[in-house]
Amino acid sequence: MSEEKKNSKGLSINFGLKSFDILKYDYEESGEKIDTRKIGYQIQFRPDADLNEGTISIEFKIIGQAGEEDPIELGSIHTLTTYHISSIDELLTDDGNLLIPKGLAISLLSIALSTTRGALIAKSEGNILSKEILPLADPKEMYEASPLKGEIEIK
Question: Superkingdom of the source (predicted)?
Answer without folding.
Answer: Bacteria
